[in-house]
What does this fold into?
Amino acid sequence: MNKSGELPGTVVLVHPNLLTDPANKKNQIGIIISADLENDNVLVSFGDEGVALFSSNALFILREPDDIRHAALLDETLMPYPDFYDIMEACTLAELSLHREAIRIAMENPMVLEYAMDRLDYELGLNRHNGMGR
It folds into this structure.
């Protein structure tokens, strides 16, 4: 992933397990308006529901479709078929730039969230992955 100048317009999911959520936007889809990575401030629009400010670790973004597919195919025999199907469907939607639809699948299936999305701070290299997940 890139830096703050390339983030506006990126579709994000607010962390579904966000502990502090004064804007009450947990598990909602929004679009990044602006980002000040030096101060770890990301402004997200929720359309008619307004805007809210988040840290990069409170937001998930879609991984690259090739990365999603590769990880899912490596683990295909280890997961239930419905989960694999949902992951591949999210991957296809991401390839078609139907990001909101792909994220909606991730919102409904924790396995898809794990394979198809990553925290924004990890993608930007602001924090190292803590080894959870795959």
Q: What stands out?
A: The mean pLDDT is 90. Helices lie at 65-74, 81-95, 99-108, 110-116, 120-123.
